[in-house]
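pipeline/complex-builder :: batch 7 item 3
reading input block
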Amino acid sequence: MATARAVSPSIVWFRQDLRLQDNRALNAAVARGDPIVPVYVFDEAGEGNWKPGGASRWWLHHSLQALDTALRAVGSQLILARGKTGEVLRQLASSTGATALFYNRRYEPAAIAHEREIETEARGMGIEVQSFNSALLREPAEIANQQGRPFQVFTAYWRHAIALPVDPPVRLPATRLPAPEAWPKSLDLEDLELRPRLNWADGFSADWTPGAAGAAVRVKRFLSDPVADYGAGRDLPDREGTSRLSPHLHFGEVGPRQVWAAVRALGRETGVFPVNAGAGIFLREIGWREFAHHVLYHFPTAPELPIRSEFARFPWAEDPGGQRLGAWQKGRTGYPIVDAGMRQLWQSGWMHNRVRMIVGSFLVKHLRLPWNHGARWFWDTLVDADLANNTLGWQWSSGCGVDAAPYFRIFAPVLQGRKFDSSGDYVRRWVPELARLPAEWIHAPWEAPTAVLAQAGVRLGETYPAPIVDHASARRDALAAFKKLREASRS
DNA sequence: TTTTGAGTTGTTCGA
DNA sequence: GTCGAACAACTCAAA
């Protein structure tokens, strides 16, 4: 008769928390002391209407590989599966005899529903379930205004949130993770079929290193210099002035508590926090990410429907054959800054934030196409596609969300280009057919003298499109459409 | 309780 | 060339 109790492992269900440090679910499993079975389930059905797009899947592939490598370095490994999470976990529990399940929470409506299902099922099997926050400084339900309602204005939200203490990141309390007696069966990473069949994502590797180690490099590099000039530098798309942490944060390869601690450490000699204006502005951006999750949690229909419901009746323009949408997607609108952004997105899986605002405003206000089309395209093409951030951004751009840009704020693409890409180098990089145009004309080639165009080898309508809409009249039409909406809402 | 002022990222127009 | 106003409506917090 064996006296030792049967060793029943704990399952750690990895999701958007693909890291070993500052991972509370993992730490709790370690604290329990039993063998740990780390698992990732690729389950599209659990994502509702927002199954991961191509760029996101590319990232996930490499991030899972990185996580497995990190786990192997501590004597463990990542079990991979695809299909229904509930079924996978049930099988895993019965084959390993696991009696506990640990995971970190998500905040998208489908993910929340999914968690509830999994918890109910697991508890029904007698499995202990514990969930944690490793994705946000504060969870949506922790923050409310004086009336006990969710904030709908960022500044008020952030004033409130920033006054609360930020928990320090937690370290993995072990150099080895206890392994089960036998490892359960795992799929090969390739079996998840996350990588595109065609090689369109080949260029991504030049720009990105998915995984916690790559994230740490980005944090270090950004805080070593660009952060000091973040206030101005973040608006210049030709420069490495932003942190580029968005995909790492989305997949949880680094968490906001770790970022917060790293920024705090910058001023440790002086005790000044934040150490300079740039650092404070950067932390505000972390705050926007928090706010986006707050808003999505409290307005779960926001990915599909405008939060200001009257916008459901906005008079969008006709787009027979999807010509205009297609031109926007392909970066062939004839507005160089817009086209540069859309091509950067397609080729690198990412777009500079300043340019996101410009192309967003252009789609919704100049082309008057529904913001949902833009949200969907971004969703499919961005490596940092994140339902909370994407939804907030698009509803902000079209003026139909909480704390959104006012309707009359219509970005003028030529002015934006001249202001934030004054050298024209951003356009030159992504729209090479305009590369030989001097800065003076590069943001409005249709205004360039014939000789200048000829010299630069540009033939409008042939080598590069003429503008598909006229700025001044598109602006007038957009303002008229908003006026119409306002009158319709009044009656 | 009511009132008041402020609120991520703009542009245009007229003085 | 610069500068302020206009371009709405609503949320939130402080007075």
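note: The radius of gyration of chain A is 24 Å.
queue -> next item
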